[in-house]
Amino acid sequence: MVGTSQAAVACRTCTLRRNPVFRGFSSRELSFVSGMKRGDIVLPAGAKLTTEQRSSIYTLYEGWAVRCRTLPNGSRQILDFVLPGDTVGLPAALLGTVDHTVYALTRTVLCELDGGRIETLFHKHAALALSLLQARLIEQRRTDARITLLGRMGATQRVGYLLLELRERLKDRNLVTGKSCPMPIRRTELADAVGLSKVHVMRALRELRTRDLLQIEARTLTIPNLRKLAHFTGYVHARGDNLCPLL
Amino acid sequence: MVGTSQAAVACRTCTLRRNPVFRGFSSRELSFVSGMKRGDIVLPAGAKLTTEQRSSIYTLYEGWAVRCRTLPNGSRQILDFVLPGDTVGLPAALLGTVDHTVYALTRTVLCELDGGRIETLFHKHAALALSLLQARLIEQRRTDARITLLGRMGATQRVGYLLLELRERLKDRNLVTGKSCPMPIRRTELADAVGLSKVHVMRALRELRTRDLLQIEARTLTIPNLRKLAHFTGYVHARGDNLCPLL
DNA sequence: CGGCTTCTTGATCAAGGTCAACCTTTGTGG
DNA sequence: CCACAAAGGTTGACCTTGATCAAGAAGCCG
To answer: Cβ contact (<8 Å) for A99 and B144?
Structure first.
């Protein structure tokens, strides 16, 4: 539950930024963002990210997290998966309230930035601010896909779609090796993300395995044929799923 | 299908802006936005808003519209309802691609703005740009609620929640009279929004009527007791559902 | 080696979908 | 102003999908 503040990874040498899907920074921008940095936070698997306290925003540096909501009746809906490079906590910093919680799924390392300086960022770094908006629009697009998935797709397609989408996002982050990528999420989390019961997710996975569309084994997802799975699930790869990390 | 370009409503006298939920403009901002205005567009009910052509962005001035996606199998998912003051077309203008379509549900009047000048807006009007981002965050919040609705709520609650949410948005726009507000959407559209069949939406509406939670008659929604419905559906009124229109 | 959590599968049950029919409203042309 | 057509609303009967319950197998950690 408790985050450990540690010696900061210098923004200039941050390895995330080397990834071509992330927006390049001018040296002026980079030094501004460096100045926003408050430190690093390490969370163990299962920990909740407390986001209210100091109006901080975070960039996930390493690991997996989820953004989710819990209903009065106790059931939970996973809104989105947070992967390295993704930003967390913008609503808290800019709107003052949050309506969701963020949990670490694995051990995660986050970069903490001063959310109070966003306003200054908008005044002094318009291009970066614009990228920030674009990143939101891209996330919105993924959210739209999730709504469509939940509202109008069958169980097997839902599971297949979600896993394929995750693989594509991991691919952008150079986290795919050959036909396989890490898949630390549990059946229960899969279920809470696609709006099914854990048991039914099993049935869906079995069917996907039977059809040779994908396989999860030992926390690893393997997709033999991307096209086949994309066709089966109706997945369309969105060009430019690049984003705008603040780190 | 064809929009009619007409004599522009002057931004300075735009009645939408008088509504307190919309962000106030400085006179400098107002004159910049006035300069972005390309004209007005009137769409008949059922018309599709073509958003690709000139990288325009639009503010809905009057009427109702939907943002939706159609799947390969022909079924349709309504992503969101567009109400007066809402902005349409940001993805087309800023990302260059769109993955959804916008249809007019009733006769609508839209204000067309030059999307190409957003970049300049970010450079010269940082505060307005920030509001633009905040408006996206608020929309995202509504989208998160929709995901939760689709993933983890029962049929009757889904319908009740959606209608209550719409009423609250209409309230912000001064479109609620007493316990009633206009509700031009059809059963089919309701169904495509909440991920149910038309027939089952009927069953849900019947139950809501039986429980005295709400009633739709003659294109009018009546909610006798807001609290009761909010409790039944788990709806929580989000403070500050204000937004940032460009008009 | 226990004691935990997660995975997996079968059996049964309920929520919601589909089909089909009939009714009601709206809109249009004579 | 009426007649008729078309679109939307409403309901019942039946079927499919996915939820729930229950129990055993397989990892994982002290």
So the answer is: yes
